[in-house]
Every structure is written in structure tokens, then in C-alpha cells.
Amino acid sequence: MTEPIWSSGGAGGVRAVLDDLEEAAGSLAAAAGELDDAARSLGVAAQVAAWDPARAPRAAALLDAAAASSAEASRLRALGDALRSAALAYLEAESEARRSITLAGRLGEAAADWWGSVAWVHRTAALAIGGRAAMRLLGGPGLPPTTGLVGRDEASGLLALAGEDYARIVAVLALVVHQAEAGEPAYRTVEPLPELVDGSPGSLEDLVGRLAWVHAEGEGTVAVETVRGDGGARHLVYVPGTEDWWVTSGNPADVEADLVSVLGAMSDAARAVVDAVAAHGIGPDEPILLAGHSQGGMVAMIAAAALADRYRVERVVTAGAPTGRIRLPPTVAALHLENTRDLVPGLDGRANPDTPRRVTVSHDRRRSHRADAPDGSRTIAEAHGFAGYAATARLVDEGVSASTQAWLDGARPLLTEARSTVTAYRPVTG
Fold first, then answer.
1. Same domain, 302 and 182
2. pTM
3. Number of domains into which the chain is organized
4. Cβ contacts of residue 190 below 8 Å, gap of 6+?
5. Which pLDDT belongs to residue 135?
6. Which domain holds residue 15?
7. Could you tell me the pLDDT band of residue 199, with boundaries at 50, 70 and 90?
8. Structural domain contains residue 121
């Protein structure tokens, strides 16, 4: 069976292919126009030659050349039309390839999750009534199965209905949270923790493992890993996801950062990343890759755009992050990992742009056929977890499409196992 994973964007994506075919079709149309001009000029020359008895024998040859030029122009136009048709066929074929889940299959999953959620409610009620004895006997209630009912695409489609009001609603929510956090200690800067010696990630899967590590560090910690060699230094920056769900902590990786970041604006979390890069003493010509999971992916994108004017920011990797509304400079190449059963990447109500510099990998992990799949992605936590995104990254390492392969080839200098140093930067508040 084919693994339900595909990509959009990038060197082999629809937009890139359409751009290439459209450019080729335009070139053919221009060449056809020049041949038409040549045919007209040859026709005029043939008429002029026919008036002069000394040149009359050449008139027939000129007319033949004009006819040949006109015929070649027609062939070029037909080829240009064929290329445009091929572009449309490519778009339709890729759309069809993504329809791996039948309506009946989705309805079956939705029904199963509905009854699973009903059973979860009954179980939770039984535990509440039974108290500690029932908890010891049955275990905790866990989370209900929901990904058959709503995932990335459903969340995105629902929020897209807000249209232009989406940004206004999120901005108002961000203002409310900001005011609620008025008593929090303000973010000031970052301070380095003792340096660690390690081996740098040699794969995308290893990179996702680093994101799990930096998230476990807590307190909004940002980490910078540096590899120094004959080719100079290269740096990998790891950004944590949401860590603070309340309004009393000074941790910049909070709900306000979620709301601000989804619109592509700077937050204290993004400032912490910018400050960490500055504190690390990175040279302007030393390549940088930024990576983040969930909120960390949004913040990595925003920080990359802020740093691109002063540093050589080459790559961004996001996992489970809503990044469709965030712009990147054309010099930065992004790779977005998204589980289609994870609703978080759809919380911006907008798909990632399909451009040659941005590749989005979509993986339906609930329908994965892999023996090493770490989860069923039946609950919100499973669908959004690090283990699942590491599995998606593993598939990308093995090869998903021409677009992902081209992206990895370009990132190879940054994703090569070598002795490295890791410095964690902890936000300072107060």
C-alpha cells in the first residue's frame, strides 16, 4: 500500500511546475511571433522581387521560406498550448493523488470517533463518581478520539469562513490576553547556560528530536547548536512551542505569542530568538537553520524574516505549526511538516503558499501503513505529538517527492553529523 504522504510547493510542486511550463509556453509564443514577423517580411520581399525581372526567379524561394516560417510559428503555438494543457493536467493529477481517503472511509472514522467520545464521557463520569478506587482500577480518562471528526483541513476550512475578520478577531484576542498579562514580569533579554558538547543532527528526524529536547528544557529556552569545520561555522537554532497557558508567568512562549505569531507579528518569543542569535556571536556569512514545533514553528518563521537582513538565514523547518499567514524573504527556504489529523496547522485558516521556496509535507498518520508508526493519531495529543512528527520526518529523509529531495539536498551542509556545541539561552524577565 502507498503511504498517505505527499508534498506541495518546492522545486517539484504545482506552482513551480506551472511557472516553468508557463515560462516555456511564453517563450514559444514569443518565438512564434518572431517567425510570423519573419514570414511577413519574406512575403513582402517576394512581392518586391517579383516586380524586378532580374530578381523574379528568387520570388518563389522567398515565398517558400515565408510559408515555412508561418508553418513553424503555428507549430510553436500549438506546442505552447499543449504545455498549458499539461500544466492544468498536472494540477488536476496532483489534486486527485491527494484524495486517498474516500468519503465512506471518513464517515466511518467520524462515526467511530463519535461513539468513542460518548464512551469517553461515560468513562470520565464513572471515574468522577468512583473516585480514587475507580481511577486505580480503570486508569485515567485520557483524551477522547476526535481526529476522525476534525483535523487540519476541517479546522482550516471552518476558520477560513471568517475571511478578513479572522485577523481582526485574533488581534482583539491578543490585546485581551496582553492586558490580562499586565502584571507579568516583562521580557528583557536572554542569558546563556553552560555549553554542551554533542553531535549535530544528520537527518530531519534527528532535528525533530532536538525540538523535543528544547521543549523539555522549559522556561522559553532557545538553543543554538554550532558546528565548526574547514568550511566555517554553521548554526541550528531550536525554538520551543507553547509552554505557558496562564497569565502570571514571564515565560515568552505563551498564549499571547500564539495569537500574535499566527498573524506573522513579532512577540517576546520571537525577540528571544533574535536575541539568542545575536548573543551567540554568529557571523554574517555563517549559514543558519531555524526549527520549531507548533508555536515554535511560527516563531522560527518570524525570527528568520527578522534576521535575514543581518545574517545568512538559509532554512526553516516547522512541525505542526500554522504558518500560512507568515511571509518569508525569498532567500529563505522552508519545509513544513503537517499531520492532516493535527488541527493545529489549520488554526490560521489558510494553507501554506505553494511556491518554489516553501515545501509543505502532508501526512495522514492515522492511515499510516508503517510498522514503526508511533501513534494512531486518534486524539489531539497524539496527532500533535513529537513522536508522530519524528515519524513523518523519517519518511521525508527516506524520500517523499522531488520537492522534498531538492529541499534536503540544499539543506545537506546544515544537516550533517559532526561534533558540535549546544548553548541554551534562557529568557530573563523582570
1. yes
2. 0.80
3. 3
4. 222, 272, 275, 276, 279, 425, 426, 427, 428
5. 47
6. 11-97
7. very high
8. yes
Q: Any idea what DSSP says for residue 353? A: P
Q: What CA–CA distances, in Å, run from 176 to 169, 181, 347?
A: 11, 9, 19
Enter the DSSP assignment of 374: -
Residue at 67: amino acid letter: A
pLDDT at 124: 67
Question: Is the per-residue pLDDT at 101 higher than 60?
Answer: no
Q: Would you say residue 183 has pLDDT above 80?
A: yes
Locate cell 524561394: which residue? 61
* 5 within some domain: no
Q: Name which of 218, 411, 425, 234 is nearest 317 in CA terms.
A: 411
Please state, in angstroms and rounded to a whole number, the distance separating the CA atoms of residues 400 and 337.
12
Q: Is residue 398 part of a domain?
A: yes
Do 107 and 208 belong to one domain? no
| Lowest-confidence segment of 26-30, 180-184, 268-272 by average pLDDT | 26-30
Pair 229, 291 in one domain: yes
Helices 295-307, 268-279: axis angle to 10 degrees equals 50
Do 192 and 307 reside in the same domain of the chain? Answer: yes
What is the distance, to the nearest Å, from the Cα of residue 121 to the centroid of all Cα atoms in its chain? 35
Sequence-ordered list of residues with C-beta below 8 angstroms from that of 280, at least 6 positions apart, any chain: 224, 226, 235, 423, 425
Please report the pLDDT score of residue 94 as a whole number: 53
Q: Are residues 235 and 139 in the same domain?
A: no
* Average pLDDT, integer, range 42-65: 71
3-state secondary structure of 338: strand
Same domain, 289 and 347: yes
Q: Are 329 and 302 in contact (CB under 8 A)?
A: no
**One-letter amino acid for residue 177 of the chain:** V
Instruction: Indicate the burial class of 182 (C-beta count within 10 angstroms; 0-12, 13-18, 19 or more).
Output: exposed
Task: Please report whether residue 367 resides in a domain.
Answer: yes
Distance CA 22, CA 11 (A): 15
Alpha helices by DSSP H, listed for 197-267, are 204-217, 255-261
84 plus 219 within the same structural domain? no
Side chain identity at residue 271, one-letter code? R
Residues 337, 297: contact at Cβ < 8 Å?
no
The 10s digit of each residue's pLDDT in 286-301 is 999 999 999 999 999 9
Tell me the mean pLDDT in the region 311-332.
97
Binned at pLDDT 50, 70 and 90, residue 67 comes out as confident
